[in-house]
Amino acid sequence: MGIWEPFDPFSYFFHTILGGLGILGAIVALSVLKGSGKHIWAGRLFAFGALIAATTAVVFSFTEFSGAAISSSVMTFSALGAALFSLRQKRGVVFWGELLTTTLMGLSFLWLTLGVVMSIESGLWLPPLLYSLFPLGLFIGDIRFLRLNQQQRSSAGLSRHFSRMAFTLAIAVHAPLVTFADELPVHPAVAFFGPFLIWPAIVLTFKRRQDKGRLALAQR
Q1: C-alpha angle with apex 197: 38 to 50, nearest 5 degrees?
Q2: What is the DSSP string of 64-75?
């Protein structure tokens, strides 16, 4: 029995259609002026779609367990939460929310590390090992961010927001490609790791725009 088979078309709608709309929302958010009304609403659509897709993936795994789906979903929850809290830097609830998202990312790393250990005997340990480096890097980044003071957190918040949203988009694209990897005319490694190139591409593009903006302000 496949992971999808026990579920009715309503489940397909929530996972596939809303997840797809979320990706479209991400494309719109990337193409319009950052901070504009369109960007905010498109970003919310993406976050909602990614959240629904991650939640339903966890539900599906209760019928047929999928370690990859669980790890991707938990990283999605963590990255989305971190992206949200990055723009809200008042202490209190936000700090505890940041602590929760950091913990989730750390648990994702431990989960994938366990997968590496369990895969050693089969010889297929390299993919989960490489995959585990993503949550490890984000977890270290989260720890460093939590240790910043209020002013430093506010200064780094916008860049962190875009980084986490870009990582969430990479996971959103990664999930369907892995699901249908056997039907695609590409090497499985390309289908598995290729989508994560979206993450640094978006981050570097955003950084270049930031640098240009700062240079333009300095020249005035």
Answers
A1: 45
A2: S--HHHHHHHHH
Q: What is the pLDDT of residues 161-197, one digit of tens each?
A: 999 999 999 999 988 888 777 777 878 888 889 999 9
Question: Residue 190 in contact with residue 219, Cβ under 8 Å?
Answer: no
Burial of 59 (0-12, 13-18, 19+ CB in 10 A): middle
Residue found under tokens 């056997």: 182
Cα 98 to Cα 85: distance, rounded to the nearest angstrom:
7
pTM: 0.87
Alpha helices in the chain (DSSP H): 9-12, 18-31, 37-63, 67-86, 93-119, 126-146, 150-179, 188-193, 198-219
What angle in degrees, to the nearest 10, is found between the helix axes of 67-86 and 150-179? 150
Neighbours of 128 (CB within 10 A): 20
The radius of gyration of the chain's CA atoms, rounded to the nearest angstrom, is 18
